[in-house]
């Protein structure tokens, strides 16, 4: 196996652009690539531009209906004709010229990443332009046109991989990926997110555990708004790590939406980049523990374009390259000048938010016992009670 990490990137991917004023501003992607380059991360990875397999977008039909694909193609050619029955032309997913082509390229990038790790051409792979986890088989949703994560996972299943774990740490429930594999026991989908009682898409509760042939294959940790670093990390480790370990996946795909940050405009969690980096590192370590490091990491949500997304996903990329960046590292002066020039804003001067000590954020493990008065622990216990027995795990103890 080649120990080099693969990064999917091409400036053309900033063409995934819903227009001025839309939260999904592609500037976040360009600034991530520029920061990773400025810190030398990209010198230690192999970079590939995405390309359609065999020059065709037929690979999308492994997840999406032909009718939906035809609707996206038509809206790409004439945005005014977008059919809202397919979720296109809405406020969340406005149609734009070339929408199909760039969305297909993002999905192709995730497919390339999965193929490279599966074949041993790369140990890890990152596509921070991907992670478009809300897209449904026959409908756009939540800024997501094609579900690249589901496309990559389906390809693995088609090659005979028997168990794939998908872990989603975006602040929004990973409903699209869960939907695709709802009744497939070969895929474990885990989502840790802000409760659907207060946040889009309004789904992903503890008792949502998978279809009749796959009970326990869907795992949802639905946390209250205002959850911070220590409680969030406690929840992550109390559920994700034991369930993934029990599942024994042969491959891990993870989605690293960073909209859980305290400054993100679309949600209500209060995490720092420090905790997000710790989660990236933890999932990387988990992949080595359970599936010999066969790991593909994707981007996702994140709408604080300057202060959060570039730093969080540069940390993710550096971790995949086995060259983690200390949180106290200064951001490059050239990058900060570039940010000010194009946005008029002052960029963060360091790679962390100043919370961690020695690059770690403290949290209390579940081994200390449940705290009944904690709403976070109540949410964690609801998830553990719903799915742990189905994986042969003890609800109360690690």
TrEMBL record:
Q: Does the keyword Ribosomal protein apply?
A: no
Q: Which CDD domains match?
A: HDAC_AcuC_like
Q: Which family does it belong to?
A: Belongs to the histone deacetylase family.
User: InterPro entries recorded for this chain?
Assistant: AcuC (IPR003085), HDACs (IPR000286), His_deacetylse_dom (IPR023801), His_deacetylse_dom_sf (IPR037138), Ureohydrolase_dom_sf (IPR023696)
Q: List residues of the Histone deacetylase domain.
A: 22-318
Q: Which SUPFAM superfamilies match?
A: Arginase/deacetylase
Pfam families recorded: Hist_deacetyl
Q: Could you list this entry's UniProt keywords, alphabetically sorted.
A: Acetoin catabolism
Q: What is the protein's name according to its record?
A: Acetoin utilization protein AcuC
